[in-house]
Amino acid sequence: MTLAPAHVDRWSGEDVSVARVEAELGELRAATGRGGAPDLRTSVLSHAAWVPPHWAEQAEAALAGLEERHPSRTILLFPQDPDGRHAIDAEVSLHCFPIPDQENRVCSEVVSLRLHGRKAEAPASILAPLLIPDLPAFLRWRGEPPWGEEPFPQLLGVVDRLIVDSTEWPALPDSYARFAEVFDDVAVSDIAWARTSRWRRQLSSLWPGIAEVRHVHVRATPAQAHLVAGWLRSRLERPEIELSITPADRFEGIDVDGEPAPFPPGDPPAPSDLLSDELDQFGRDPIYEAAVRGSLP
Amino acid sequence: MTAQTQENPLLEGLNVGRVPEPCAIVIFGASGDLTRRKLFPALYSLAYRRLLPDEVGIVGVARTEQSTEEFVDAMKEAVKEFARDPFRDDVWDLLAAGIRYVGTDFANDPGMDEVMDVLSELDEGHGTRGNRLFYLAVPPVAFEEIVCELGERRQRAATGWVRVIVEKPFGRDLGSAQELDELLHRYFAESEIFRIDHYLGKETVQNLLALRFANGIFEPIWNRQFIDHVEITVAETMGIEGRASFYERAGAIRDIFQNHLLQLLAVTAMEPPVDFDAESVRNEKVKVLRALHTPGPKSVVRGQYGRGFVEGEEVPAYREEPGVAPDSMTETFVGAKLYVDNWRWADTPFYVRAGKRLARRETTVAIQFHPAPHPPFAELAGAGMQPNRLIVHVQPNEGVSLEIGAKVPGQGMQIRTVHMDFLYGGAFRQGLPEAYERLILDALLGDATLFTRTDEVEEQWKLVDAVVAAWQRDRPSFPNYQAGTWGPKAAEDLMRRDGREWRRR
Questions:
Q1: Which residues in chain B have Cβ-Cβ distances shorter than 8 Å to A197?
Q2: Are residues A94 and A212 in the same domain?
Q3: Looking at the domain assignment, is residue A31 inside a domain?
Q4: CB–CB of B14 and A197 under 8 A?
Q5: What are phi and psi of A291, to 5 degrees?
Q6: Which one-letter DSSP state was computed for residue B304?
Q7: 20 to 30 Å CA-CA from A11: which of A172, B101, B262, B428?
Q8: B482 to chain A nearest CA, in Å?
Q9: Residue B243: is it exposed, middle or buried by C-beta count within 10 angstroms (0-12/13-18/19+)?
Q10: In chain A, which residues have their Cβ closer than 8 Å to the Cβ of B425?
C-alpha cells in the first residue's frame, strides 16, 4: 500500500549549520500539527544514504514509497565538488501521510544535505547528531563502497546496518572478499541477495534431489548468480559446486545439473519493497554472510 | 545421515511462512454471512500471501441449492468486496480450482455421503491427503447432526488429521456447553477441537500479551499495588442487524460477555505463561476465570435500548426491531464489577461493559493506576491532575495510549492530561491481518493457543449462569437506555458508588 503524502512542508537554506537543520525540522513538525489533531512523529528508524551525484536519481526513486511504509528520518548526503566552497546546503521536508480512519497523520522527515568542499570529508560528524536517538540507523550505500577509504569507515562507525546492492558492483566476485571484511563491524544487507529470495525458496523445494548438485547455470545478474551459487555451496556444504553464468538484467532462470528449475510463482518485488524489507532486519544474517564467503573462488 | 532423512538446510533463513500440510477445508454453513464476509476473504488473503498449501480444497456445504460454479462466483464477489488485499486473478484461480459445493440439509445421510465423496475426489485429484478441517459456521441447532455424521464417518475412514472449528455460541449455559462438549469428545480429542473466539485472533489482543510480557516496565506495576481498577468496554453502535432469532435467545451476556469480554479480562489479568505454547497460555487464562468472584446482583447491570439517535440517524428501539417480541426482556447491555480473587488482583475491581447501540464503537481495555500519592503542587495543579491511564485500543484506532500529566506552558504549575499514543496504523504502515486469517491458519497448523479450551468455556458459563439465575428474580423496566448513549443510568451508578466514572473519551 503506497499513499501519496497528504501534505509536504519544506524548508531550505544555504550554508547552514546542523543545529539550524534540527531547529527547522522542529519548526516544521510544530507547524504541521497546529489547528487540528496533532500529527504523529512515530519514527521507527533513521535511514541515511551516501549518494554520489551519479546515483542521485536512483536514490530518490527508491525513497518513494519507503517513507510511507517506515515512518522515519531519512538523511541523504550528497557529496559535491571537493574543491568548491566549504558549506552545507540543506533542504528539509516533512511528508505527512493519512492514517485510515484517523484525523491525524503520520509524518516522515527527509533531510537532504549537499556537502560542499571539505564538509564532505567528515560526514559522520554531520550525520551523527541528526540520527534519532535510540532508534536503529541504517546506511544505504550506492555503488561499490571505497573499501577502507573515507568516508566509508567513519560512516559505518555511526550506523547499525549497512545496506548495499552488489548488483551495482563491477568486479564480482572479488569485491565480496572486501565486503566480508566488514561483517564483524556492522550488520549488512544486500538488495541483490533479497532479489534472489523467491528463487532460493524455489530451489529449497527441490530438496532432497538438489542435495548432490554439481553444477548450476544461472541466467541473472552476476551478483545474483554468485550469491545463489555461494548459498548452495555453503548450505549444502559442497564447495565444489561449479557455476556458469549467462548475464541478464534480472534473475531469469537456473539450471541444476542441466535441469531447469521451475519458475517461482508471483511477481518480483519492487525496489522500494526490497529496501523496505531490509529495513525490517536488525541482526546479522549468517546465511547471507556464508553465501558471500561461499561465492569466493 | 542421507539427504532423504536430513532436515532441508536450504530452508534456514528463508523466512518461509508457516504453511500447513495439504488439506481440505469443509465449511458447514457456507451460504451464510460469516462465510461471505469473513471466511472466504480470510482464505483468499492467506492464499495471497502463499500461506496455504498448493494442495488445498475448500468444500462449501449449506442448505441452499446451487452449483459449484454459482458458489465460486458468489465467493469471488465476496472476496472482491470484503478482502483486505487487492483482487488478483492468478491467486483466485488457484484457490477456486479446489472449491466444491454441496447443497444438503445437514441431517441428511446422502448429503453427508456426497460431502465425503467430494473429499475423496479432492484427495485423489487435488492431493489433500485425507487431512480435514471442518468449520462449523452453523446455528447451534445444527451442531449435533453434523458432529454425529462427521464423527461416525471419521471412525469408518480414518486417514489424515481431522480438526473441527466450532463457532460461538458454545452452548447457551453450562449444561448445554457440557452436552456439546460431551458430544464432540465422543468423536474428537480435545486437541482436535478449536473453539473460536475471534477476539483472540485480533492483533491488538495479542499485542496486549506483547505489551505485558515483552516490556520490562509494565509487568512490575501490573498488580493491585499500582492499579486502581481496570475498565473493559466492548461497545457497538450497531443494533442486531437482522439477527433477532439468535439475539432474542442470547442477549448481550451470551453474545459478548460470556466470550469476548471474559477472554479480554483473562488476557489482561493472567500471570505470565512459561512459554507461548497453547497449554501454557490457556492454563494461565483458566486460572483467572476460576478466580473470578461471582458478582452479587448489585454488581451487575443490564439494559435494553430504546429509540434514539446513533451517528445522526434515528434508530428504533430494540423491541421495535424486526423479529423481536414487543415485550422482550432480552438485555442489549450488560455491565458488571468483577473481582479476580488472587494475590495479584485482590480488591482491584474490573469494571466491564458490553452493549449495542451505544454512543461509539470501541473495544478498549483501560488500566487506571493509583493517583500520585503526594504531588507537591496539588493545590496549584487543580482538577488537571488525573491518575495515569494505559489504554489498549482493541478496535478501532488499534494501538496503545498512555495518559500522563504534563505542565501547561506558562506561569504557575497547571497540569493537564496528555496522551502518548502508539497507533498501529502510524508505526506499522501495513494493514493488520483479519482475526480469521490468523485463526484459520493456526487451526490448519494445529496450533490452539488462540482458541478457548473446554475448561475455559465451562468457567465462563459458570459465571454467566450465576448472573442469569439472579436475573430470573426480577423484571427490570425495559427499555432503560436511549440508543446512542453509554447505557443505563444504573451502569453509571455502578462506578459512582465506588467514587469512579467510566471513561468516555
A1: 14-15
A2: no
A3: yes
A4: yes
A5: -65, -40
A6: -
A7: B428
A8: 26
A9: middle
A10: 99-102, 106
Residue A123 near residue A155 (C-beta atoms within 8 A): yes
Candidates B14, B16, B423; nearest CB to A102: B423
In a domain, A166, yes or no: no
Q: How far apart are CA B395 and CA B204, in angstroms?
A: 8
B11 inside 8 A of chain A by CB: yes
- Looking at the structure, do residues A53 and A111 belong to the same domain, yes or no? yes
Q: Is residue A183 part of a domain?
A: no
Task: With a threshold of 0.85, tell me whether the complex ipTM lies above it.
Answer: no
Q: Answer yes or no: do A28 and A140 share one domain.
A: yes
Closest CA to B82 of B39, B50, B49: B39
Same domain, A96 and A230: no
Q: Are residues A210 and A124 in the same domain?
A: no
CB of B92 closer than 8 Å to CB of B85: no
Range of the domain at A52: 7-159
- Cα B318 to Cα B488: distance, rounded to the nearest angstrom: 14
Q: Are residues A111 and A20 in the same domain?
A: yes
In a domain, A186, yes or no: no
Q: How far A70 CA lies from chain B's nearest CA (Å)? A: 7
DSSP letters spanning chain A: -----SEEEEEEESS--HHHHHHHHHHHHHHHTTTSSPPB----EEEEEE--GGGHHHHHHHHTTHHHHS-EEEEEEEE--TTS--EEEEEEEEEEEE-TT-SSEEEEEEEEEEEEGGGGG-HHHHHGGGSPTTS-EEEEE-SS--TT-TTHHHHHTT-SEEEE-GGG-SSTTHHHHHHHTTTTTSEEEEHHHHHTHHHHHHHHTTTTGGGG--EEEEEE-HHHHHHHHHHHHHHHT-TT-EEEEEE-SS--EEEETTEEPPPPSSPPPPHHHHHHHHTT--S--HHHHHHHHHH--
A215 and A269: one domain? yes
Residues A13 and A131 in one domain: yes
- Please give the sequence-ordered ranges of beta strands (E in DSSP) within B131-240, or none if there are none: 132-136, 162-166, 193-195, 227-235
Quote the CA–CA distance of A252 and A255 in Å, as a whole number: 11
pTM of the model: 0.79
B1: contact with A, CB 8 A cutoff: no
* pLDDT tens track, chain B, 505 positions: 555 557 888 888 776 667 788 999 999 999 988 999 999 999 999 998 888 988 899 999 998 899 999 999 999 999 999 998 889 998 999 999 999 999 987 666 688 889 999 999 999 998 899 999 999 988 878 888 889 888 888 766 657 899 999 988 888 899 999 999 999 999 999 999 999 888 888 888 888 898 899 999 998 999 999 999 999 999 999 998 888 888 998 999 999 999 999 999 999 999 999 988 888 999 999 999 999 999 998 999 999 999 998 877 889 999 999 999 999 999 999 999 999 999 999 999 999 999 999 988 889 999 999 988 877 776 666 666 788 999 998 887 788 888 888 887 777 777 777 778 777 766 665 667 788 999 999 999 999 888 999 999 999 999 999 999 989 888 889 999 999 899 999 999 999 999 998 986 4
